[in-house]
Amino acid sequence: MLFSASVTGDGLINRDYWQDIGGSSITDLTTSGDYPRYPNGSDQLTSLQAVDWGGSGQTSDWLNSYGQKIAGYIVAPETGTYTFWVSGDDNAQLFLSTDSSTGNKSLIADVPGYTYQLEWDKYTSQKSADITLQAGEFYYIEMLHKEGGGGDHLAVGWRKPSDGAGTIPAEIVPSSALSSVLPLSAQDNQVTRDYWTGIPDWPTYFLKVDPDYPHNPDGSDTLTSLQAISWDSPSRDNNLAEEYGQRIHGYIVAPETGGYTFWVSGDDQSEF
């Protein structure tokens, strides 16, 4: 028996970082040969504030000559008008999508130079326009940050509809409004399939290092068995396309207690 999962948000957001990149502009990061596929490291945050890299307290001077990308989803807690701010040292950009798709993201706020920590009003561009969000909806959000030398920090704050108007954020965007993944289908007897097109060669390595894996698939659907040889054809065509990858995930509910043996079959490379 198969079950997929239903979640509202896991309270996390994903961060990748690249070290030993000179300059302080965002283009210094995005034109690096290692961006976006090969970060030096990855972790997750529990709020939209990146100033503590694992120490016992908040620090605003972690390293020089690095860049980072923070990406995931905002889960709107209420319906209405939101305003966002970004603060950072050195340059920072804040993107938000009109939905959960990365393809619909746009730049809504940026720091063109640097700010002090949690300084929200140095540049007019730090503040977004008013943006309407729907309660319970998932919206893709992304931050890019480039540090040259000296202090470094990044934070995103907001005012929710219930916070009213104001010239600075009411709070840093909290864990309760974040998700590192999209929710899966809540329907029973199904598993979720995500797929990515344009993945070269056959080793699963090329899927797993793609910058859009695993959080930003080109499409998703559900299966009613663990057989995936057609996206939608009732004929179960076994030659759908070339150069794609897929990830099938959910839960198996054991129908009886005892020893089980599993096999996997696939073309080309598969991992179970």
Keywords, separated by commas or semicolons:
mainly beta; 2 helices; four-stranded antiparallel β-sheet; 34% strand; single chain; globular; seven-stranded antiparallel β-sheet; 272 residues
What does this structure look like?
The protein is mainly beta and 272 residues long. The chain contains two helices and 16 strands. Strands 2, 3, 4, 6, 7, 9 and 12 form a seven-stranded antiparallel sheet that branches. Strand 6 (91-97) and strand 7 form a beta hairpin.
Record the SSE blueprint.
Layout: E1 2-3, E2 13-19, H1 26-30, E3 41-45, E4 66-75, E5 80-89, E6 91-97, E7 105-111, E8 131-133, E9 138-147, E10 153-159, E11 171-172, E12 178-179, E13 191-197, H2 204-208, E14 219-223, E15 244-249, E16 251-252
Antiparallel strand pairs: 1-16, 2-3, 2-4, 4-9, 4-12, 5-8, 5-10, 6-7, 6-9, 10-11, 13-14, 13-15
